[in-house]
Amino acid sequence: METNRGRIRVEPGAKRVRAYLGGVPVADTVRPLLVWEGPHYPAYYLPAADVREDLITPDGERAHSPSRGDARRGTISAGGRTAAGAALYYDDSPIEEIRGHYRFDWNALDAWFEEDEEVFTHPRDPYTRVDILTSSRLVRVAVGGVTVAESTSPRMLFETGLPVRYYLPKPHVRMDLLEPTDTVTTCPYKGTAQYWSVRIGDTLHADIVWSYRTPLPESRAIAGLLCFYNEKADITVAPD
């Protein structure tokens, strides 16, 4: 059953979800709730019966949300690790479905699994789709007025709610203008990305190129290809 209250949407999840801290499963459930607290992706709310409550120490503090009400805050301790204030327990929420459920700070825990696959950054949204299509359209990328990439064999990535991204083979990119950085990001659909900046003359355009060297299986078609931020580069696609 789906419930809406203000901007909050609640739906039952169908996957087994596990959360770990210090190598210890803090929660293991086949009855998760997907709760959209914002428009972009959901959070997991886990029933108390499937949570190791013996690993959670109440902090004596409460967190307040205008839509979800008050939650008791607790610290999770497991496997020699401590996640201070990382557990919220909703015992008297105005949203009936989340009463008796915990919400964990995703980044405070070591690992999350959907079934037996590790998930990064946030839960996968069941309404987000990623399509990667081979194309023969000409894609030209310019930065600071200089053409830095040109290809007629791009992979076009269509992800719900985002601009089309163009992934290009490295031989079609001016790699001499790229400088690797230490920036790393993760995506629950694509995996871990590494970044480059583009230097045009004396100007450095920081972290505007990324690549997934070993993407997740569903996105393996973009492995090793380079993508430029549409928002930070001038990208033309022909025919347009």
Explain what this protein looks like in three dimensions.
The protein has 240 residues and is mostly beta strands. The strands form four sheets. It has an eight-stranded antiparallel β-sheet with strand order 1-2-5-6-10-9-8-7, with no helix packed on it. It has a seven-stranded antiparallel β-sheet with strand order 13-16-17-21-20-19-18, with no helix packed on it. A four-stranded antiparallel β-sheet has the order 4-3-11-12, with no helix packed on it. It is elongated.
Bin the strand percentage.
over 45%
Taken from the alpha-carbon principal axes, the silhouette is: elongated
Into which percent range does the helicity of residues fall? under 10%
Report the oligomer.
single chain
Q: What name is given to the CATH topology of the largest domain? A: Metal Binding Protein, Guanine Nucleotide Exchange Factor, Chain A
How many domains? The number is 2
End-to-end C-alpha gap: 43 Å
Largest sheet: 8 strands, antiparallel
CATH architecture of the largest domain: Beta Complex
CATH top level assignment of the largest domain: Mainly Beta
Tally the helices: what do you get?
0
Order of helices and strands: EEEEEEEEEEEEEEEEEEEEEE
Spatial strand arrangement across the major sheet: 1-2-5-6-10-9-8-7
What would you report as the Rg, rounded to the nearest angstrom?
Answer: 22 Å
Number of strands: 22
Average of per-residue pLDDT values: 94
CATH superfamily of the largest domain: Domain of unknown function (DUF427)
Secondary structure class reads: mainly beta
